[in-house]
Amino acid sequence: xKRIRDILELSRIGNVAITGFSVLIGTGGYVRSxxxxxxxxxAISAMIIAxxxxxxxxxxDQKTDAINRPERPIPSxxxxxxxxxxxxxxxxxxxxxxxxxxxxxxxLMASGVAIxxxxxxxxxxxxxxxxxxxxxxxxxxxxxxxxxxxKNPALAAFPAVFxxxxxxxxxxxxxxxxxxxxxxxGARTLAVRAGHKRALSVSAFSLLLLISFSPVPYLLGIYxxxxxxxxxxxxxxxxLPVIYQLFKNPLGADxxxxxxxxxxxxxxxxxxxxxxM
Length: 277
What we know:
By secondary structure, the protein is mainly α. It has 14 helices and no strands. The chain has a single domain, classed as UbiA prenyltransferase (Tetracycline Repressor, domain 2). Helix 3 runs parallel beside helix 6. The radius of gyration is 18 Å and the shape is globular.
C-alpha cells in the first residue's frame, strides 16, 4: 500500500486528475452526444501520459529536487531513479496506444505530447522561458485532445488559451520558488537568467492577459451568463491580488502560496467553463 502511495505521489495524482478533467471540458459539452467510451478512453490516455511526464520530470530533476524538494519520492529514497524512468516510459506507451485507437489525429497528438514531455523533462530547465512555454502548451493541448475526440477541436480553443496563460504564469512562479536549487544545479530558467523581478513580471502579464480575455467567450455567445459570473467572481477577482503581489512585492511574495492559489483557481476556471456550456 505504501508503494502505491509513493507511485501516486511520483505521478502527482492531483495534476493528473486535472488533466483528465481538462480533456472532458475540451469536448465542449458534446460528451453527451459523442461516443462516451472514446471520451473516457481519451481522458484516461491523457492522464496516463501526464503521469509518465511527471515521473520523468522527477527523474531528470533529481539534483534540484534534492535541494528544493527533498521530500519527493526520488530524493527521499522511497523510489529509485531507475524505477521512475521505466515507469515513465511504460506510461507513455500505455497512454499513446489508446490515442491511436481513437483516431489518427488523437494518436499524433498523444505521441507529440509524449515527445514534448520528454523534451521538457530533459531540457526544460535549460530552455529559459522556452521551457515554460512548452509545458504551458502541453497543458493547453489536453483540451484540444478532448475536442479532437468529439471531432470538434474549435470548441476547445478558449479553454486551451486560458489554460496556456494560467500554466505559463504558474510555471514561472514555481521556477522562482526553486531558484536556489536551480542555480546550484546549473539550470538556466527564466528566473535564473533574468532574476526574480523580471520573471514575475512576465508571470503577472500572463495573468493580466487571462483576465482580459476571460469575458470574450460570453461576448461571442459561446458560453452563457453563468460562465461570466463564475469566471469573474471565482477567477478574475482571485487573480487580481496575485498580480498585485507579483508586481509590487516580487521579493517578499510567498511563492508556494501563490502557486497553490493558481492551482486551485485552475479548477475554479474549469468549473466556470462547465457551467457555461
